[in-house]
Amino acid sequence: MSDPRAEAPATEQSARLRRALAKSPPSVRAAFAAVALVVLVAALGPLLTRDPTAQDLLAVLRPPFATGSAGTYLLGTDQLGRDLLARLVSGMRTSFVITFSAVLVGGLVGTAIGLASGYLGGRVDNLLMRIVDIQLAVPGVLLVLTLAAVLRPGVGTTICVLSLIVWVIYARVARAQVLSLRETDLVMAARATGCSNARILLYHVLPNIAGSIWVITTLEFAHVMIAEAALGYLGLGVPPPAPTLGAMISEGQRYLQLGKWWLVVMPGVIVSLTIISINAIGNWLRDIHDPRSRGRPG
């Protein structure tokens, strides 16, 4: 049974978040709407669009709103006559599943390590932070490219590889937050009442650092999405015939000189719109959780 006193910080943060959202500038609301639209299309689009692998060789490289044997292609077709809209929707779904899973895995692992390191301290803290330092010494791009090239390509491999560049950020942020909280009256009172370390971390410490974790999640989601698109662009992500946004850009760039702009522009717009919107949301969350910025107008 949860402690009502421990739930108070999370309830207060939720109420403050709702109030801040009601007073947020139009750009933030537009960012939320854009992300919601992209997620909705990715979730429901496969039920409404054609088979993304179906080929129409009589309608190769058709521009948007062209017609073929399968009907009208709203966003045109690619070099094999496949419906670009259907491939975009399928690619969005794949990219979101990979990005969300990688951020979830990396966030859970990194937050748990940061909580344990900051709260227990001593040798545990030294050991865990040295592991973090070792990974930070290796460039993230080099680590991802090396593992993606060595391991067997696939959705699971891509998720595991991308989660490796995420967890260290969560670990360091969570540790720093716990170090500032472990000697506070709230934690000391919980210890005095006989609460276990696990209960203190879950019900007293974690709710108080949830705001920082959410900010890191939004920002890292954008970073991981860029990394996933880069892997697909280099051919190290999910193998064909499953479409991904990065792979679609890579396949379409060779036809730019022939004037087939929609093969690159359409997936590029989706990636750019999503990343810009998520970054805007992340910056807004950072501002409302930063005590120094709460008094700023807008």
Structure description:
The protein is mostly helical and 298 residues long. Helix content is 71%, strand content 2%. It has a two-stranded antiparallel ribbon. Helix 10 runs antiparallel to helix 11 (262-289). It is elongated, with a radius of gyration of 23 Å. The two termini are 40 Å apart. Residues 294-298 have low confidence and may be disordered.
As residue ranges, the low-confidence spans are 294-298
Strand order of the largest sheet: 1-2
Query: What is the mean pLDDT?
Result: 84
Largest sheet: 2 strands, antiparallel
Could you give the count of β-strands?
2
Q: What series of H and E elements makes up the topology?
A: HHEEHHHHHHHHH
Distance between the termini: 40 Å
Which structural class matches the secondary elements? mainly alpha
| Computed CA radius of gyration, to the nearest angstrom | 23 Å
Q: Tally the helices: what do you get?
A: 11
What is the quaternary state of this protein?
A: single chain
Task: Give the strand content.
Answer: under 5%
Given the C-alpha coordinates, what overall shape results?
A: elongated
Report helical residue fraction.
over 70%
